[in-house]
């Protein structure tokens, strides 16, 4: 099933397939051994679809004649490069499982192994249809020889590669007695002969390191232990195993990830007392103490965090020319969540749930610091940084892939860590699920893409960094607690500020007891049509002062405002900002536009949001013409009017 979001269409089942692959497959890019791939594939058995389907007929050809010169081996496949007029000769070495596609492992005559995904082989049966079967060991069983035309080689998700076939007619089953195999000089299956593979201590060390890097600590320990059996005095293997085997160390790190900072600090401090000299434990203990302090007191070293953000935002070009992080996690910052004790979620009349003040709260009070559950940056999906200054059309094109990747990662997180189900599934999603239905889904840790997609539609945040940070990074993310703040285009009493994947929320004026705490999702600098279209897509009928005014204004006034703003955007602004010598007639024209815009709302002078940018441009122009006194006067007026607007 496909879901329409505010930014594009997302296919439910393929997202779930990608999430399952990420959970069951170690996501490191090195080519893996046959044994490793088989072990990973076995993990899919418990997650596959066992329902019965109408399955496409298998294309069998006993006396197939092939031009062996057109055969391509797995080792010669290149990602996103379709081998035109070439075919893959392969042998099935695992059972097929159905998730979205039919997935199995295949090997070529040289012994190279890769995942195979067959698409469009099954259909949901009609009521009463009898010619159905499930995908089990009997479907293209182990040992089946296949010729596959028109294949593509893709990254299914992350670094997980897959051979993809979209047309069942391109898959041909051939007989083992085909004359092609009579002459070993033509096709010889190398895996028919026994290979003696030397598995020394260094082999197990490298294999253990691969599993350790992908957070599969148990398998890493097993491999280090196998190496120690061969070399009992190998200090490196003992050190690596100790690093992977310290349960308290892992538990301390995990508790930090669950925001249980005080427990983590206690465990790690006790561990460090017993293992003094271990720099890793010392470092994470110190970090856990900092997290606990941030979480309890809402005190953050902002200058340090800003420096950390800039350092971890650094990118480099990979071999394909893509923008990749120098640091593996990029600008995902390891700092604690914080929630002010004097705010709570409550029911708001006409709105549903929202944040309210439990008592009077002063201006500039930090209410919340929230680390994203998941955040996706544009370069991670598109291979390049998409600047927030890009035009609207370009931005819309690039948001959809990020939204799809965000949905995949959230599904993956819930698969791997089911305790996140309540955090996601209790968000507003616009679905008419009963309380019992929702409780059942949460209790059984069901990965429901219907809920995930709709929760994202209504709660996703676009990453917009403050200009003073001087960054072009963009992306999307899900911050669960901030999602409960309701919207107003103006008169919001809470400001939001992003640093990396951290969202800081602070009051911008004194708050009274019982008052709702409000942010804006689209402020009044956006035109009414754009704001209202977006808000309607997430089921918000905004009743703020500016929306009510703009709905009540006559068509004649709306048309004239549009004409004036178009004149500014297309004629005045480009000339003023590009010209080195300021044309005084343009200044006069800009002042006339501002004056007329104000006159059109003379009875609502406190709602003149559409003049803010124009006045800023006017001040800039006077400064460029070296009339600093006039520029300063305009800026003071703008500052005062902005305060009045809010």
TrEMBL record:
TPR repeat ranges, renumbered to this chain: 201-234
Keyword Cell cycle applies: no
PROSITE patterns tied to this protein: SET, TPR
One Pfam family named in its UniProt record: SET
SMART domains for the chain: TPR
Protein name, per record: SET domain-containing protein
Keywords assigned by UniProt, alphabetized: TPR repeat
Family matches, as SUPFAM superfamilies: SET domain, TPR-like
Keyword Chaperone: no
Boundaries of every SET domain copy: 341-522
Listed PANTHER family: TPR DOMAIN PROTEIN (AFU_ORTHOLOGUE AFUA_5G12710)
UniProt lineage: Eukaryota, Fungi, Fungi incertae sedis, Mucoromycota, Glomeromycotina
């Amino acid at each position: 099933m496909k879901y329409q979001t505010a930014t594009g269409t997302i296919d439910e089942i393929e997202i779930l397939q990608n999430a399952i692959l990420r959970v069951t497959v170690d996501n490191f890019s090195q080519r893996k051994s046959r044994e490793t791939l088989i072990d990973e594939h076995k993990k899919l058995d418990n997650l596959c679809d066992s329902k019965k389907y109408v399955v496409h007929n298998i294309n069998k050809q006993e006396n197939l004649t092939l031009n062996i010169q057109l055969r391509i081996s797995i080792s010669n496949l290149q990602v996103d490069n379709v081998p035109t007029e070439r075919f893959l000769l392969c042998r099935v070495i695992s059972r097929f499982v159905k998730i979205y596609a039919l997935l199995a492992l295949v090997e070529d005559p040289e012994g190279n192994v890769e995942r195979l995904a067959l698409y469009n082989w099954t259909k949901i049966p009609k009521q009463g249809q009898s010619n159905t079967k499930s995908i089990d060991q009997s479907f293209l069983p182990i040992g089946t020889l296949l010729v596959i035309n028109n294949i593509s080689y893709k990254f299914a998700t992350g670094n997980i590669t897959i051979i993809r076939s979209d047309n069942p007619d391109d898959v041909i089953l051939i007989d083992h007695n085909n004359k092609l195999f009579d002459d070993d000089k033509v096709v010889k299956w190398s895996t028919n002969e026994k290979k003696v593979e030397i598995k020394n201590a260094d082999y197990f060390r490298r294999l253990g390191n691969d599993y350790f890097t992908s957070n599969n600590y148990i398998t890493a320990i097993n491999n280090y232990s196998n190496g120690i059996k061969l070399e009992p005095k190998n200090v490196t293997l003992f050190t690596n195993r100790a690093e992977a085997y310290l349960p308290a160390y892992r538990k301390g790190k995990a508790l930090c990830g669950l925001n249980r900072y005080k427990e983590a600090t206690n465990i790690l401090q006790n561990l460090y007392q017993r293992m003094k000299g271990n720099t890793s434990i010392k470092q994470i203990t110190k970090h856990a103490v900092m997290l606990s302090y941030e979480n309890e007191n809402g005190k953050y070293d902002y200058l340090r965090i800003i420096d950390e953000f800039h350092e971890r935002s650094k990118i480099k070009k990979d071999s394909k020319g893509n923008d990749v992080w120098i640091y593996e996690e990029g600008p995902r910052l390891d700092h604690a969540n914080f929630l002010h004790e004097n705010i709570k979620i409550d029911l708001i009349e006409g709105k549903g749930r929202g944040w309210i003040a439990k008592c009077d709260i002063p201006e500039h009070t930090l209410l919340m610091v929230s680390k994203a559950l998941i955040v996706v940056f544009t370069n991670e999906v598109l291979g390049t940084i998409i600047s927030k200054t890009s035009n609207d059309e370009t931005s819309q094109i690039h948001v959809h892939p990020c939204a799809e990747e965000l949905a995949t990662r959230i599904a993956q997180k819930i698969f791997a860590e089911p305790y996140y189900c309540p955090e996601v599934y209790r968000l507003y999603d616009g679905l008419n699920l009963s309380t019992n239905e929702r409780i059942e889904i949460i209790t059984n840790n069901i990965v429901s893409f219907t809920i995930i997609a709709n929760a994202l539609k209504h709660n996703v945040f676009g990453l917009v960094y403050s200009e003073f940070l001087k960054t072009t990074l963009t992306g999307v993310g899900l911050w669960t607690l901030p999602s409960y703040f309701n919207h107003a285009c103006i008169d919001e009493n809470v400001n939001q500020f992003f640093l990396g994947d951290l969202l800081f929320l602070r009051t911008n004026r004194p708050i009274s007891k019982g008052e709702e705490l409000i942010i804006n999702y689209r402020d009044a600098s956006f035109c009414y049509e754009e704001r209202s279209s977006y808000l309607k897509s997430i089921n918000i009928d905004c009743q703020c002062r500016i929306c009510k005014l703009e709905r009540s204004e006559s068509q004649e006034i709306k048309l004239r405002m549009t004409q004036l703003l178009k004149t500014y955007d297309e004629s005045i602004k480009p000339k003023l900002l590009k010209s080195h010598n300021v044309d005084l007639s343009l200044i006069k024209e800009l002042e006339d536009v501002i004056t007329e815009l104000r006159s059109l709302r003379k009875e609502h002078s406190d709602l003149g949001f559409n003049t803010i940018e124009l006045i800023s441009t006017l001040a800039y122009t006077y400064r460029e013409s070296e009339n600093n006194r006039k520029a300063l006067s305009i800026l003071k007026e703008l500052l005062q009017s902005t305060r009045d607007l809010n």
